């Protein structure tokens, strides 16, 4: 007997409470199968094994736990009424029953085999020669007519009934999911789904296992433990309901139930022999997918003598060729007819552990997936997916020439459901798909943490603890990590408002800017780190590439798109060339990227926060110059940064002393001590992730008022000197910062404290970056207009000169424009352009000193 | 009680005994490990175990106990195997239980069949590591291990790696395992390529180890990180606590050697057969080749005991925490200062009489990353030795000297050619499903000597730029971003980088020392090579112990000294705020740390701090001077 079994046996006997009869489960599970149909009738005479449903397993109340011992003939009569007794199906497994013949309501809709549960039918069959005869479906209970599928505790009837009840009654208590759009929440969720199937005609019913669990814990457990038995039962139940309701509906084939989100396993690393044959959900990244493999499901044989035809099912890749024609009894006359055999599509996909799940210093694990039928070609290499399927282990084929066997198994997952994790990234807002699952304790811990009064300071000091001081910069980055609330004004035509906060750090070399960037990059899950020197516009955005194999145009995304919903850290921002930088304009305000090349015109989302670091042009920061002059960046770009910090080397004794102490401590503390001292990076990461996905603060009334006041104040400061010191962009920045601060507190409302802190931080950043080095006045226009301080200074002087000139002319209420210009030029020893003159006039006009009408200047 | 030879030569019989005694319980596995642990603890028992590092695979008895000193290069997916299985005799229906642990092939007698459906079957999990010998391991390390070994390799004569002996031994081997040998011959003999045999001899003679390529397929790339490496690669099957091992860890494993030729045959069958089962075809041919290479080329070791090595210096006790090694340490510490003085003298000569550079070189050689704060590695001390003479001879000899001192090292010649064409960063090959190694995949505490004097002007292509960036990242962050195609993964490392260059290096470094030769020998070649021969082997060994040992010491700074240093720093900043930065403090603290350790002090003292400052001042003065000499240099 060289045929391999389909599954290795497991060690779970006692766990399932079947310890008393250890041989039965395995026997039912891994049998060589062809024998069974013919032997069915003969089996009766032989000794029965004793498959029992021990009390622990028997879930239905009142069902006394009788030992099964009746031979198959009796069983037929004992089948519950909702089975069509006359149907031959009852002999088979639930799946073959559905698939074999249409039920009354289902008539007309063809059955589609489920290769994802492929080996089920075979597995169900009985290993006659090793364990003696046994029934394939079930042992019945003399009382209550309890049928239990062999080797499990699944009772087909009650399982079906329970699932139908679930379908009909389950109402989702919490609406969370993205796919719920258009569903009425007060109605049973899955009935609406069935209705949808009727309308759309896609015969797949996706069932969230979490829902099932909240509805019926036991059914969920059964589904997880015995998916190959339970899912066909679910199919049956769903079809019954569906065709009861929509008898006229025409579907391609019968509905197949696809459970997903089984909570059992999430990490590939945790897979172990215990999980074999169970329903599991794991996530990872597709690294390779094979060509389509046609897999024969059913072979069609025809007798060359009498043209008698027969079908043979494939059992684990083998065809049992009938050697004798049943009709004419000719030996070796049956010929395989390829065209009439049934094939199903199959694809091999390699899934690699996602990088986040991996322990440091180890290489990622991979696992093989088999996708069948519809699921073929649903995923491409590079996709992040979550897979629900059945974990299988198959022994490596026995070599007929050698008696030894390789003692290892091949493992794979038969895919039942795919879910792309990042499919939504190219369109629409969808935070849910990325939501990290937090355990309840973790959430409680985070919430506890958020109640601490000094949480803001705590978090900011936990951020990059090796970098000394720079408290405000850290706070700014912290707020950036949290981000503002996303607002949608699409209907009013303004589009999305940016919620991301952009920060620019500039300052002396060697002030650990790069280190801060590295830290942030390591902290956030979707961070990208590039250097301005090395990146091109293409590398940052996206480019179109022709796939060498398919000749298809493919859009390859760059750092900015990859860091969608994350942070893009750009070092050496100043070294970036002009064209590359110009790409950032769109990204930093509209948060999109437009691509128009090689026949692809599209807009990608790039909702990324930008954390950039720039060195001053003269390598050392020149305090006598403005930010603009120091870093030589266009003001159009600068104004898109919410916060611009200067990282300067402060030169005072106290600072030096603290710095020295801090550094020395680095050099002798041991690693454990270091860890105790600061908040763990993991906690910080979770805290941020939680806040980002669950907290969405809105402005409160008073906070709004405070913001208005703040904004008006800022405008006032400027208008006093004839310029505007704040623009709506600054107001937006303030709002974002305030929202982010509220997020830090896990507060759903933005309150005055938040606005105060936002104001303070904004002012702090301004003070550092927008201070006019000559006057010492905070002047936003340095950033927004790029007006250099020298130019403005000269303008001021010119205005004064002009004023003096006018005053010297005596009391005449109006002057000729050209005359005045000439006089001024004559008086001044430097060249004065017309623009400068006009600016000076405007400055005086702003001071209410004069007005200009046409060609005359009128004094007030 | 089984005798010594038994647990060494036939460990399976012992496992079988323990298995048979304890069978229904699952704790037989624990007992097996304990048994071997006890055995190996006995006097010098570890020296009796033949090591795959010194002995070619074909001299080792299959299924005997071996050891292997190696680095984890790649980790394959976990395997499920039959931990316990049952065989049945179809005639008599007699059932026997077997264990599948420590085996690749489920054994059963000629008249028996494996009952795959048996209820007794236990499925277990094990992990496979692809291990290579420690990259860049110095010759003296290998020699020392070989001379310590007392293993009797072949059952008859002692092993001598000469050609004529081999056939004789193979014959004997064949007598011992007639069936297996026959099968092996069938495997290769049945092949269409009749030329296998002569080819085999040829490759073997050149490569120095057993190379059988049954299909005459292109020679398998054994995936060594460094070019030109030799030695066996090995598939190490780990049965417990595999989570604690990481890529690039250096391990010493004791386990059962499996070179069962059946393994290769099974593979060939699968590869050749046209009736491929869908399940088996899921691995590409490429992947098959890599994951189950011929056992004769890449043997399997089924691990009974595995331990991470702190260091691979054979002159030091393997574990420094034990009682007897403590006495070793304290004995050595007492004679530390003469050793240091001698080493300093030796290196001063090597560096053409420059004692300052020699001082810094010592500090560099005992540096090690001892902690990481966030992303910042602490304790790395990359030295850029600038001002090296532009001929090849000097840098080459410096490398040779370092090679004689440290257990593992590699000389990276930074030529345009090399940068553009060699593989620095390991990357994942998804068709073969393995991590293709690169030069920067090195074990901890390997010395990497980058020779920049070789660099000419020229064009770096994309690969070259990546390689230079990777090298820069390695130096700054002590990590290498392995390329996984769809994403990158960061692997922390701990590599001592020494850069030799003419001017300031284009790579970042922690500290630049400008070489000031005090003497220019007329014949550099002769001068340098005479240096090494002049040192007594016993002194050389002391140097080796010195450098390895000091790395492993702890270090602290007292409150008092902290205060003093603080004052000092503030003072310095006051005097010269432009030139004294936090970076300088960082560096001086590092210098002070290694300076204290180099004289065996584990706390910082005031004198050492001053000495560190003095060294730094000297070094800086030199750089300043250099700047003045060639004004255009920054």
UniProtKB/TrEMBL annotation, chain A:
Known EC number: 3.6.4.12
Signal peptide extent: none
GO biological process assignments: DNA strand elongation involved in DNA replication; double-strand break repair via break-induced replication; mitotic DNA replication initiation
Catalytic activity: ATP + H2O = ADP + phosphate + H(+)
Primary location: nucleus
Transmembrane spans: none
Keyword Nucleotide-binding: yes
Family label: Belongs to the MCM family.
Function: Acts as component of the MCM2-7 complex (MCM complex) which is the replicative helicase essential for 'once per cell cycle' DNA replication initiation and elongation in eukaryotic cells. The active ATPase sites in the MCM2-7 ring are formed through the interaction surfaces of two neighboring subunits such that a critical structure of a conserved arginine finger motif is provided in trans relative to the ATP-binding site of the Walker A box of the adjacent subunit. The six ATPase active sites, however, are likely to contribute differentially to the complex helicase activity. Acts as a component of the MCM2-7 complex (MCM complex) which is the replicative helicase essential for 'once per cell cycle' DNA replication initiation and elongation in eukaryotic cells. Core component of CDC45-MCM-GINS (CMG) helicase, the molecular machine that unwinds template DNA during replication, and around which the replisome is built.
Protein name: DNA replication licensing factor MCM4
Organismal lineage: Eukaryota, Metazoa, Chordata, Craniata, Vertebrata
From TrEMBL, chain B:
Keywords noted in UniProt: Nucleus
Superkingdom per UniProt: Eukaryota
InterPro entries cross-referenced by the UniProt entry: MCM_complex-bd (IPR019140)
Keyword Amino-acid biosynthesis in annotation: no
GO BP of this protein: DNA-templated DNA replication
Compositionally skewed regions (Polar residues) per UniProt: 152-161
A single GO molecular function term of this UniProt record: chromatin binding
GO CC terms of this entry: nucleus
Pfam (any one): MCM_bind
Basic and acidic residues: bias regions: 175-185
UniProt subcellular location: Nucleus
Stretch list, region Disordered: 152-193
Family note: Belongs to the MCMBP family.
Protein name: Mini-chromosome maintenance complex-binding protein
Organism: Melopsittacus undulatus (Budgerigar)
């Amino acid at each position: 007997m060289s045929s391999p079994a389909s599954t290795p046996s497991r060690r779970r006997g006692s766990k399932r409470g079947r310890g008393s009869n250890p041989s039965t489960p395995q026997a039912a599970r891994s049998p060589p199968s062809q024998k069974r149909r013919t032997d069915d009738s003969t089996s009766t005479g032989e000794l029965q094994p004793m498959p029992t449903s021990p009390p622990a397993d028997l879930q239905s109340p009142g069902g006394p736990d009788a030992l099964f011992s009746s031979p198959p003939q009796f069983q037929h009569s004992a089948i519950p009424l909702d089975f069509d007794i006359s149907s031959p199906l009852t002999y088979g497994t639930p799946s073959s029953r559905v698939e074999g013949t249409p039920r009354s309501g289902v008539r007309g809709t063809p059955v589609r085999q489920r290769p994802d549960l492929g080996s089920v039918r075979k597995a169900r069959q009985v290993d006659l020669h090793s364990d003696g005869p046994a029934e394939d479906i079930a042992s019945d209970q003399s009382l209550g007519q309890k049928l239990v599928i062999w080797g499990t505790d699944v009772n087909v009837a009650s399982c079906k009934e329970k699932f139908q009840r679930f379908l009909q009654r389950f109402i989702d208590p919490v609406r969370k999911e993205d796919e719920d759009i258009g569903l009425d929440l007060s109605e049973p969720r899955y009935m609406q789904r069935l209705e949808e199937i009727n309308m759309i005609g896609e015969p797949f019913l996706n069932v969230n296992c979490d829902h099932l669990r909240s509805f019926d814990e036991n059914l969920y457990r059964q589904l997880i433990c015995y998916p190959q038995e339970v899912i066909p039962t679910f199919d049956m139940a769903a079809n019954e309901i569906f065709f009861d309701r929509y008898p006229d509906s025409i579907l391609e084939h019968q509905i197949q139930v696809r459970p997903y989100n089984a909570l059992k396993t999430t990490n590939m690393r945790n897979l172990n022999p215990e999980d074999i044959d169970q329903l599991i959900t794991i996530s990872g990244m597709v690294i390779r997918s094979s060509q389509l493999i046609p897999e024969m499901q059913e072979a069609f044989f025809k007798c060359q003598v009498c043209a008698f035809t027969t079908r043979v099912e494939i059992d684990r890749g083998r065809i049992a060729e009938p050697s004798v024609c049943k009709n004419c009894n000719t030996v070796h006359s049956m010929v395989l007819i390829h065209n009439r055999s049934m094939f199903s599509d199959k694809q091999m996909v390699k899934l690699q552990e996602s990088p986040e799940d991996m322990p440091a210093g180890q290489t990622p694990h991979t696992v093989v997936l088999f996708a069948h039928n519809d699921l073929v070609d649903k995923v491409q290499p590079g996709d992040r997916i979550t897979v629900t399927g059945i974990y299988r282990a198959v022994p490596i084929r026995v070599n007929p020439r050698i008696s030894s066997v390789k003692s290892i198994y091949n493992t794979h997952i038969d895919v039942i459901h795919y879910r792309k994790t990042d499919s939504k990234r190219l369109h629409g807002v969808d935070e849910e798909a990325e939501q990290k699952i937090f355990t309840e304790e973790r959430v409680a811990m985070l919430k506890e943490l958020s109640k601490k009064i000094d949480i803001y300071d705590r978090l900011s000091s936990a951020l990059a603890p090796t970098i000394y001081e720079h408290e405000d910069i850290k706070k700014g980055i912290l707020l950036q990590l949290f981000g503002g609330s996303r607002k949608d004004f699409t209907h009013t035509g303004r589009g999305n408002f940016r919620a991301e906060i952009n920060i620019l750090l500039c300052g002396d070399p060697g002030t650990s800017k790069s280190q801060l960037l590295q830290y942030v990059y390591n902290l956030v899950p979707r961070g990208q780190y590039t250097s301005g020197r090395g990146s091109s516009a293409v590398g940052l955005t996206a480019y179109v590439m022709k796939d060498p194999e398919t000749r298809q145009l493919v859009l390859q995304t760059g750092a900015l798109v990859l860091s969608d919903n994350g942070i893009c850290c750009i070092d050496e921002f100043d070294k970036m060339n002009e064209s590359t930088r110009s790409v950032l304009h769109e990204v930093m305000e509209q948060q999109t990227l437009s691509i128009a090349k090689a026949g692809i015109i599209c807009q990608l989302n790039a909702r990324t926060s930008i954390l950039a670091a720039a060195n001053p042009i003269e390598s050392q920061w020149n305090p006598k110059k403005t930010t603009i002059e120091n870093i030589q960046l266009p003001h159009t770009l600068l104004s898109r940064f919410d916060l611009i910090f200067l990282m300067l080397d402060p030169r005072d004794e106290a600072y030096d002393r603290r710095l020295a102490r801090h550094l020395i401590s680095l050099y002798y503390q041991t690693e454990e001590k270091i860890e105790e001292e600061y908040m763990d990076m993991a906690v910080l990461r979770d805290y941020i992730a939680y806040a980002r996905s669950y907290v969405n603060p809105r402005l409160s009334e008073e906070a709004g008022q405070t913001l208005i006041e703040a904004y008006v104040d800022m405008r006032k400061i400027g208008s006093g000197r004839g310029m505007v010191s704040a623009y709506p962009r600054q107001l937006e920045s303030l709002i974002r910062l305030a929202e982010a601060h509220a997020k830090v507190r896990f507060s759903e409302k933005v309150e005055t404290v938040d606005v105060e802190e936002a104001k303070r931080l904004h002012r702090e950043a301004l003070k550092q970056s927008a201070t006019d080095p000559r006057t010492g006045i905070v002047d936003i226009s340095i950033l927004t207009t790029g007006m250099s301080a020298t130019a403005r200074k000269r303008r001021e002087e010119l205005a004064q000169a002009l004023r003096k000139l006018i005053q010297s002319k005596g009391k005449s209420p109006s002057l000729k424009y050209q005359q005045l210009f000439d006089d001024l030029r004559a008086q001044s020893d430097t060249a004065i352009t017309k623009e400068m003159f006009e600016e000076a006039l405007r400055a005086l006009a702003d001071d209410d000193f004069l007005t200009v009408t046409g060609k005359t200047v009128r004094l007030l | 009680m089984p005798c010594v030879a038994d647990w060494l030569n036939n460990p399976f019989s012992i496992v079988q005994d323990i298995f048979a005694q304890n069978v229904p319980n699952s704790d037989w596995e624990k007992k097996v490990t304990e048994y071997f642990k006890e055995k190996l603890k006995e006097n010098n028992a570890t020296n009796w175990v033949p090591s795959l590092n010194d002995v070619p695979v074909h001299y080792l008895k299959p299924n005997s106990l071996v050891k292997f000193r190696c680095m984890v290069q790649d980790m394959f997916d976990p395997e499920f195997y039959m931990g316990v299985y049952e065989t049945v005799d179809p005639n008599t229906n007699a059932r026997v239980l077997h264990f599948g642990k420590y085996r690749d092939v489920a054994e059963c007698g000629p008249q028996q069949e494996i009952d795959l459906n048996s209820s007794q079957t236990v499925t277990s999990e094990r992990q496979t590591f692809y291990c290579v010998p420690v990259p860049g391991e110095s010759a003296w390390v290998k020699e020392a291990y070989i001379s310590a070994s007392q293993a009797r390799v072949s059952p008859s004569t002692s092993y001598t790696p000469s050609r004529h002996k081999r056939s004789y031994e193979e014959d004997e081997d064949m007598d011992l395992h007639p069936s297996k040998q026959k099968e092996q011959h069938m495997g290769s003999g049945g092949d269409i390529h009749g030329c296998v045999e002569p080819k085999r001899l040829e490759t073997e003679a050149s490569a120095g180890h057993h190379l059988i390529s049954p299909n005459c397929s292109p020679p398998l790339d054994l995936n060594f990180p460094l070019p030109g490496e030799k030695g066996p690669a090995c598939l190490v099957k780990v049965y417990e606590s595999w989570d604690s091992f990481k890529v690039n860890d250096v391990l010493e494993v004791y386990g059962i050697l499996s070179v069962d030729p059946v393994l290769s045959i099974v593979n060939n069958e699968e590869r050749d057969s046209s009736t491929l089962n869908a399940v088996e075809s899921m691995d590409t041919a490429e992947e098959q080749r890599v994951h189950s290479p011929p056992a004769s080329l890449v043997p399997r070791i089924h691990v009974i005991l595995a331990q991470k090595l702190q260091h691979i210096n054979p002159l030091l006790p393997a574990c420094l925490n034990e009682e007897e090694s403590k006495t070793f340490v304290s004995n050595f510490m007492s004679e530390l200062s003469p050793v240091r003085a001698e080493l300093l003298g030796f290196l001063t000569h090597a560096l053409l009489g420059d004692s300052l550079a020699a001082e810094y070189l010592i500090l560099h050689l005992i540096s090690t990353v001892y902690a990481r704060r966030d992303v910042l590695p602490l304790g790395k001390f990359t030295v850029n030795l600038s001002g090296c003479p532009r001929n090849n001879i000097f840098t080459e000899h410096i490398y040779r000297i370092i090679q004689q001192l440290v257990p593992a090292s590699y000389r990276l010649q930074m030529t345009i050619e090399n940068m553009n064409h060699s593989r620095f960063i390991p990357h994942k090959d998804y068709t073969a499903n393995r991590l293709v190694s690169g030069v920067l995949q090195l074990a901890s505490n390997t010395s990497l000597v980058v020779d920049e004097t070789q660099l000419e002007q020229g064009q770096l292509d994309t690969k070259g730029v990546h390689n230079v960036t990777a090298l820069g990242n390695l130096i700054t962050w002590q990590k290498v971003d392995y390329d996984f195609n769809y994403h990158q993964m960061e692997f922390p490392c701990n590599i001592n980088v020494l850069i030799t260059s003419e001017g300031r290096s284009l790579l970042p470094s922690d500290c630049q020392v400008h070489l000031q030769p005090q003497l220019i020998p007329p014949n550099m070649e002769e001068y340098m090579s005479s240096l090494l021969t002049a040192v007594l082997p016993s002194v050389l060994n002391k140097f080796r112990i010195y450098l390895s040992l000091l790395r492993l010491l702890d270090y602290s700074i007292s409150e008092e000294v902290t205060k003093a240093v603080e004052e000092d720093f503030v003072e310095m900043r006051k005097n010269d705020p432009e030139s004294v930065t936090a970076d300088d403090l960082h560096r001086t603290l590092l210098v002070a740390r290694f300076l204290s350790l180099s004289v065996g002090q584990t706390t910082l003292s005031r004198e050492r701090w001053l000495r560190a400052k003095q060294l730094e001042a000297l070094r800086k003065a030199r750089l300043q001077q250099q700047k003045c000499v060639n004004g255009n240099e920054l």
